Amino acid sequence: MGASWITTCSPWSAFATLAALTTSALVLGYVSSSLLGQQAAYEYDDAYSPDAEPSGPAAPPRRGAGYPPVFAYYITGGRGDCLRMTRLLKAAYHPRNRYLLHLDAGAGAYERARLARYVRSEQVFLEYANVHVVGKGDALDGRGPSAVAAVLRGAAVLLRVGAEWDWLVTLSAADYPLVTQDDLLYAFSSVPRDLSFIDHRPDSETHHVVVLDQNLLQSTNAEISIASGHREKPDAFDLFRGSPWPILSRAFTEHCVAAPDNLPRTLLMYFSNSLEAKEFYFQTVMANSPRFRNSTVNHSLRVNVPPPPPQSAGQQARYDALVAGGAAFAGRFGDDEALLQRIDEEVLRRPLDGITPGEWCAVGGGEDGAGECSVGGDIDAVRQGAAGRKLASLMAGLVGTAPCGGCNS
Ligand SMILES: *[C@@H]1O[C@H](CO)[C@@H](O)[C@H](O)[C@H]1NC(C)=O
Ligand SMILES: *[C@@H]1O[C@H](CO)[C@@H](O)[C@H](O)[C@H]1NC(C)=O
Questions:
Q1: Residue 401 predicted with pLDDT over 60
Q2: Which residues cross the membrane (predicted)?
């Protein structure tokens, strides 16, 4: 019910949340031990503790030929984003996938605890044990290199907790899916799993501003500051720029996190003084790596939400613009409740405050969108609809034109 959902994220439940966490040793995923009254213990290289999970997943996804892929989602938000994040999680949920939710340092411990409590309160998330909450938020400014550092940290955690996944999808709390997960899994079943989807173009600017991102140095959010002076374009590598929300293959993600080749590391240092580093980092690493350049599609499968019209008259056109392109995700949504609700009803068929239904739902979740999803269904089967076929054909077109050796398998 909508009411109980709102209660879950309201400030009033914060004390109950803390009490619940304090009295229970069972903390899902990465809820920081600072909530248990100790110093924050979660760090980059904390060992992942399987004991922290209730009882292991009800049914791990089957993988390999003939089975759909697995996505790892890194969803990031800031102060006040708890509600948006839970809504996005429900809209984009599938038991096959992994989800790592990150509220940055701008959000308080209460809000993070509320989010963790919400995750623990949903039976499906507990049964499949595939939703994790970062216990201590990173300080970041979305325009600075700290945002890249946060994504790399999230990717490293996901590589560790989600044993096997195929693609990393990074979303902000203000984004939303435009297809069901069944449709997304169906569409991605048709392409080679080493493909990345990174919209990119050569950067035409010749002088870049130099910034100082204090978030790399401190534990609370700070605005980045612009330093005086500019710097010339480098000549050791070519700069590329594109959407800050790419979909990365597991191989490419590992390449950036583990950096067996020095390039990802060198570029991390180069971009540590750059504005909009998230629009450059993955794009530039990829485009300067012969191995990954050949397995990248120049598209992020995303659309931008058109700005709100002055009158409500333009709403229909906005909705049409979003769904017409056949993209998988859209962002950023402002206070677009009407638009989101329409996507819930007409595209995702998500019941009020429920999880987007799919073939995996054991009961209910039919075309009528009634009934809540529950555990016990077949999570290795997906049911594609018109949106899935549209996305698959968009992808087939992109892959066909990609500069892509050996990816048409
Ligand atoms: C990627 O596509 C965009 C247009 O969608 C184009 O402007 C850009 O040049 C392309 N990037 C490359 C590297 O070809
Ligand atoms: C990438 O593709 C180009 C042309 O399609 C080819 O010449 C080159 O050898 C490929 N590189 C790798 C590393 O596969």
A1: no
A2: 12-31
Conformation bin of residue 224: beta by default, left when phi > 0, alpha when psi is -120 to 50? beta
Segment 119-157, tens digit of pLDDT: 999 989 999 999 999 998 999 988 899 999 999 999 999
What secondary structure letter does DSSP report for 134? Answer: B
* CA atoms of 292 and 285, how far apart (whole Å): 9
| Ligand 2 pocket residue status of 290, Cβ below 6 Å | yes
> For the residues 166-191, what does the mean pLDDT come to?
97
How high is the pLDDT of residue 363? 64
DSSP 247-264: EEEHHHHHHHHH-SSSHH
Number of H-type helices and E-type strands within the chain: 14, 14
Residue nearest (by alpha carbon) to ligand 1 atom 13 = 201
Looking at all shown ligands, the one closest to residue 243's CA atom is: 1
Give the predicted TM-score (pTM) of the model: 0.85
Q: Please tell me the residue having the least CA distance from ligand 1 atom 7.
A: 201
Q: Which residues contact 248 (CB under 8 A, 6 or more apart)?
A: 155, 167, 168, 170, 196, 197, 198, 256, 282
**Residue 239 has which token pair?**
């700069």
* Cα→Cα distances 227→146, 207, 209, 231, 281, Å: 16, 13, 7, 11, 20
Full strand arrangement of the beta sheet holding 176-177: 176-177, 329-331, 302-304
CA angle 399, 180, 75 (to 5 degrees): 85
In the chain, the amino acid numbered 405 is G
Give the single-character DSSP code of 177: E
- Cβ–Cβ under 8 Å, residues 13 and 113: no
Q: How far is CA 263 from CA 138, 209, 260, 352, in A?
A: 24, 22, 9, 47
70 burial type by CB count under 10 A (0-12 exposed, 13-18 middle, 19+ buried): buried
CA of 214 relative to ligand 1 center, distance in Å: 33
